[in-house]
Amino acid sequence: MKISLKPSTQPFVSLGIACLLPILLSCALVTAVQAAAQVPAPDSPAIEAKAQALLAKLTLEQKIELLGGVDNMFTRPAPAIDLPRFKMSDASVGVRTWGPTTAYAGGVALAATWDKELAHRLGEGLGRDARARGVHFLLGPGVNIARSPLAGRNFEYFSEDPFLNAAMVIPYIEGVQSQGVIATVKHYALNNQEYNRHNVNVEVDERTMREIYLPAFEAAVTQAHVDAVMDSYNLVNGVHATQNEYLNLKVLKGEWGFQGILMSDWVATYDGVAAANNGLDLEMPSARFMTAEVLLAAVKDGKVKETTIDDKVLRLLRTELRYGFLDRPQLDLSDSTYSVADRAVALDGARESLTLLKNDGHLLPLDANKIKTIAVIGPDAWPAVTGGGGSSEAQAFEPVSILTGIANLAGPDAHILYARGLPSENEIFDKTLWSGVIKMETFLSKDFTGTPETAAIPKIADYQHSGRDAKSGVRQSIRYTARYKAAKAGKYLILAASPARSGDEFTVLTDGRTVLAQAYTEGRVPQAATLELAAGQTVNVIAEYLPHSPVASFGLGIAFEPELISEDAKKYAALADAVVLAVGFSPHTEGEGYDRTFALPWGQDALIEAVTAANPRTIVTLTAGGSLDTRRWLSKVPALLHTYYPGQEGGTAVAEVLFGKHNPEGKLPVSFDRSWEENPSAPYYYPIKGADTSLHVIEEGKPPVDYVIGQVKYEDRLLVGYRYWTTSGKHPLFPFGFGLSYTTFSFANLQVPATAASGSTVAVSFDVTNTGNVAGAEVAQLYVSDPSAKVSRPERELKGFEKVNLAPGETQHVTLSLDARAFSYWDETAHKWNIDPGKFVIRVGDSSENTPLHADLTLN
Ligand code: BGC
């Protein structure tokens, strides 16, 4: 347990400090801890002198060696100056390097709490976990805007709104860094899709960047004083982020005055000289481009100045010296790798994030006295789904599933029936009744040319096949030809799976029509489709598979949709007093490196239909990083709870909310769309066909590679999320900021000055009252409109919020301050923030669409 600069206001933690700090703790340790917390400013003369002295002892080659990482998660050591290597760890939901950890309600779930104090506690928790593992740099938080629900890493990020992102990221970073650990805000910038993330060129205008995509990074640098930033994979306006002068030099290091370390994402550097000259300080995970070979020659030829190299080394040294990394061990054994204080933060996060979207007829909270039999059904009910997939995946200590949470809370007398409800992929592949045998042709080529080796196989469930010929090492291509006869008329699921993340490609055709395709690029993974077949109809199926991973693995199957749902699930649902149906995504279907589907994973729509038909008292819980397709079943479901990815304590929190032990208080940090096509980014989300260009990259000693650069034009501009909905006058399914409670709140007494000087800070105040019968929390949201602006602006923009906890009947007077930025837009001609004096409207309410209070304000 460490003493932080900002004492935590959480009683549990304070108590922990009091009780757990052993009286005999050595003074030396306390001193070390305090030193860690009090990080000197980047311009400290003492630090500068030390950094310069160390720099002076290094040769140019030794300096360049420091500009690349080593062993995937370390900076390089410099024995000449006794500089050890420093350790990094991913940490979007938990410190994952290495072994089990506390998995928090991170990213979108944290944003759904709208609780800045909690964000600080979470940051402190991550910092403590990092110190207990000797980690110097945490590779988070990620603050990219949730532009589309499809983006695979939205769950790791915060929200669709720059103000909310900034407000949450500041205390988060302060919490991490208060523990003597460097936070790394990522992925700078405009990494708003996973589809083809290395090769997407985001074309975006300056105003959109400044108003939507950069503010959270700006706040992290200028207000939270983050000491590391990670450049993203993609290109921005034609230039990769790692060598982007505008982003790195002009904005980050220039205007925002960033003094810390700018590192690349893992393998996101494409040109050593360009990266060196355009702001990149550290190439991770190792120097492939900013190598001694490249940069020594470049310095000699005058293409890179030695002072540019010195600046990078000084940034590394200064930051490491400021944190005391050279003076004290980072491994702090007064911290715990497993701690109840951290579990408390994880539980609070889960509790506060759960967002109740529908509660017809007050089905919730469930009355424990009346509900004797509960059916808990669905793929996300057990085991616990704590986070999405990819580099943020953290193995939680004792994650509490929804099933376990309900069983714990309901107690020993409760009657609980669990069914997954759906088979696994492998069961489908194994049980598909193909007509006759399947022809499998293996070609010794990557394009189905040449004479194949032919075999007859009974099923397509090929997991241990080598992707390359054992003798020649040549890449193979495999074609499966099969026939399937439908026994009954109706909907059939056709499902295919291979390791998308390893780059495997496949195409599946039925009667000559492509029904499934997985592209080589990191991309969308449509694994399932529905076939409408007549009784007795036979379809010819051809699957062409191009393994890329060394061990090929491909499965294909067809199942009659009504028979997908297990009989147990239907029986349990029918006899239960209430059903909790946990559906959604998982680390296998939503994660880094690919975009997810808007539709629920295969079979889940049918599962919801079958279960709600068996028992209308069905509560659906959703595990997802944002919105998803509810159209097939929403009208049949009385209660809907969005759980995002709630971390290791999610199951406990869900049970508490369902049984009314905790009043739901989460608010949507993203607009909930009906279809992904109605999301404002949809027409501009995927690369423009025909506009793609090739980038010829030559890496020393390797054959040249042509990357296809997909052009993605952000034509949706400022109209992201609720900015689009409120400006267009249309409505999403559930608006940004929305979330139900078991109590009701009212807003009154809005006080806004009639006039104020342009550029001054304006105080706005109002009352929030709990008008119901139970205690609860409300998030009062303040939106600003600028109807008299000379340029077109979104109809309203979030510029303040406050979370209030109120007892029944209690009123709280809330005051929020609006600074100059709250009224400003980015002036594209003058290239600066600007306020047009005139009329503004201040609105206050409980979502972007429900703002019962409003008042005009004139800025002179
Ligand atoms: C991710 C980063 C992560 C890094 C190290 C990359 O693939 O994009 O977010 O920090 O890997 O694991």
Task: Note down, in words, how this protein is organized.
The chain is globular, with a radius of gyration of 28 Å. α15 packs across α19. With 860 residues, the protein is an alpha/beta fold. The model is unreliable at 1-36 (pLDDT under 50). A hairpin with a 2-residue loop joins β19 and β20. The chain is built from 21 helices and 38 strands. It has a six-stranded mixed β-sheet with strand order 11-26-25-24-12-13, sandwiched between helices. Bound molecules: beta-D-glucopyranose. Beta-D-glucopyranose (BGC) is lined by residues 90, 139, 186, 265-266, 391.
Features:
860 residues; six-stranded antiparallel β-sheet; globular; alpha/beta; binds beta-D-glucopyranose
Instruction: Tell me the β content.
Output: 25-35%
Radius of gyration: 28 Å
Shape verdict: globular
Number of helical regions: 21
Mean pLDDT: 92
What is the first-to-last residue Cα distance? 51 Å
Q: How many β strands by DSSP?
A: 38
Helix content: 10-25%
Low-confidence blocks of residues: 1-36
Strand order of the largest sheet: 11-26-25-24-12-13
Structural class: alpha/beta
| Major beta sheet summary | 6 strands, mixed
The small-molecule ligands in this entry are:
beta-D-glucopyranose
